Amino acid sequence: MYFWVILGMFACSCSQILLKNSANKKHRNFISSMLNWRVVLAYVIFFGSMLINITAMSHGLNLKELPILEASSYLFVPLLSYFFLRERIGLRELGAMFLIFWGILVFYM
């Protein structure tokens, strides 16, 4: 179950990158900015991630563990932004990612 939740968080992070990519594009009008394929796909992925979380909780994942696993998205988003959007990761972000990673590890020790 843990694998699926982490995979869902990775997918959720990918959808955030899709939304950011869509926001950076020039659109003809407001409707086309909200109803293009990137936005629609991102929200479908968000919905799928929610279903994964609900399924994981119904199959025995403790409620206190889910937020800890969801913190992994704070690790995925900056990395995906770096590779796909060419955004810079500063020292402050690296420090925060390090603390989040160690927080997840300490929780599961």
Which consecutive residue ranges, at least 5 long each, have pLDDT under 50?
none
Along the chain, the helix and strand elements come as: HHHHHH
Strand content: under 5%
Q: Share of helix among residues?
A: over 70%
Beta-strand segment tally: 0
Alpha-carbon Rg, integer? 16 Å
Mean pLDDT: 91
Overall geometric form: flat
Helix-strand category? mainly alpha
Description:
With 109 residues, the chain is an all-alpha fold. The protein has 6 helices and no strands. The protein has helices spanning 2-24, 30-34, 37-58, 66-70, 73-84, 91-107.
Protein topology:
Layout: H1 2-24, H2 30-34, H3 37-58, H4 66-70, H5 73-84, H6 91-107
Helix pairs in contact: 1-3, 1-5
What is the structure about, briefly put?
This protein has 109 residues and is mainly α. The chain has helices at residues 2-24, 30-34, 37-58, 66-70, 73-84, 91-107. The radius of gyration is 16 Å and the shape is flat.
Which structural traits does this protein have?
flat; mainly alpha; 0% strand; 109 residues
